[in-house]
Design brief:
This protein has two helices and five strands, in the order E-E-H-E-H-E-E. With about 120 residues, the chain is an alpha+beta fold. It has a single domain, classed as 6-pyruvoyl tetrahydropterin synthase/QueD (Tetrahydropterin Synthase, Chain A). Strands 3-1-2-4-5 form a five-stranded mixed β-sheet. It is elongated.
């Protein structure tokens, strides 16, 4: 099994609805996103996927978040823009065009992150 990773980032504000604590107030993060793609086999160039293709698709998704108020962006108008919900959103968007994507990690600080992946035989 082969795995490759790319990282990107964006800066955005959010607040957590129905949360009793500091994060209920409007605040921001410099979010870091890590995407993992995997494959049992390499393509004819010896890659799981070209890093530039994976980065380009990730940037396409993240550009809507950069310097934005996440609570005003669908689907976060209805669900809380938590790291967990951001991770699953990015994962599902990427999976539409890149089937090799197997996990997305969202870091909201250097010491706090959430990862989303779907359980498969490959990652059990």
């Amino acid at each position: 099994m082969y795995r490759v990773k790319v990282e990107s980032s964006f800066s955005a504000a959010h607040n957590l609805r129905a949360y009793k604590g500091k994060c209920e107030a409007l605040h921001g993060h410099n979010w870091k996103i890590e995407v993992v793609a995997q494959s049992k086999e390499l393509d004819n160039t010896g890659m799981v996927i070209d890093f530039s293709v994976l980065k380009k698709e990730l940037q396409r998704i993240l550009k809507q978040f950069d310097h934005a108020y996440l609570n005003k962006i669908t689907p976060f108008t209805k669900i809380n823009p938590t790291s967990e919900n951001i991770a699953v959103f990015i994962y599902k968007q990427l999976k539409k065009s890149i089937p090799e994507v197997c996990a997305v990690t969202v870091w909201e600080s250097p010491s706090s992150s959430a990862t989303y992946y779907e359980q498969t035989e490959q990652n059990i």
